[in-house]
Amino acid sequence: MTEARKICLLGDFAVGKTSLVRRFVDNTFGERYLTTVGVKIDTKEVVLSELRRMKLVIWDLAGASTLSTPARAYVQGSHGFLVICDGTRKTTLESALGLLDSARAMTGMKPAILLVNKQDLSESWEIDQDSLEGARKKCSAVYSSSAKTGANVERAFSAIGALL
After folding, report:
1. CA end-to-end span of the chain
2. Distance of CA 149 to the CA centre of its chain
3. CA distance 17 to 58
4. Do 75 and 106 meet the contact criterion of CB atoms below 8 Å apart?
5. Measured between alpha carbons, how far is residue 72 from residues 6, 51, 112, 135 in Å?
6. Are 104 and 67 in contact (CB under 8 A)?
7. To which CATH superfamily is domain 3-163 assigned?
8. Is pTM, for the whole model, over 0.85?
9. What's residue 125's pLDDT?
């Protein structure tokens, strides 16, 4: 039997949440930016071990630096969080960690993994290792990722599944 777990993606506008979901679920990437309005829900089963499979119910919340009233309702019942920031915009790290704090204030101390996205643009990154110290205290793991190339996408989704 496959267990199902709800995970929410948290992060500011244009950090790549939807692109990460598309890469994970469909193994595709599109250059065109589409703003998520409200929430988009996808599912995918991950194999965590020979004996354990999990259906991830992925809630891709609209980008924001704070949780809106609808977003507060969306995070209820979450089992864990993927927190996304854009490596080329340092302010998105602060927003992402603030969103995580807000979500945990409502749901309790649920597992979280941080993805510093846009690894393919690493020469333009504003986020360095020192900037990530606070994130390492709040999140079980920190990965650099790229929805464009697929770097660490599968790994991060499987890792959050393994924590649930």
Report:
1. 16
2. 16
3. 11
4. yes
5. 14, 34, 17, 22
6. no
7. P-loop containing nucleotide triphosphate hydrolases (3.40.50.300)
8. yes
9. 96
What average pLDDT values come out for the chain (164 residues) when binned by 10 residues? 91 96 95 74 94 95 89 95 98 97 96 98 95 94 97 97 95
- Using alpha carbons, list the distances in angstroms from residue 62 to 73, 91, 136, 143, 152: 13, 17, 24, 21, 22
Q: Which two tokens stand for residue 61?
A: 């919340």
Which ranges of the chain does DSSP label H, i.e. alpha helix?
17-26, 69-75, 91-107, 133-138, 153-163
pLDDT the model gives residue 46? 94
pLDDT on residue 33: 63
| Interatomic CA distance for residues 40 and 36, integer angstroms | 7
| β-strands 141-144, 112-117 pairing | parallel
The structural domains of the chain, with segments of one domain joined by +, span: 3-163
Matching residue, tokens 């809630």: 59
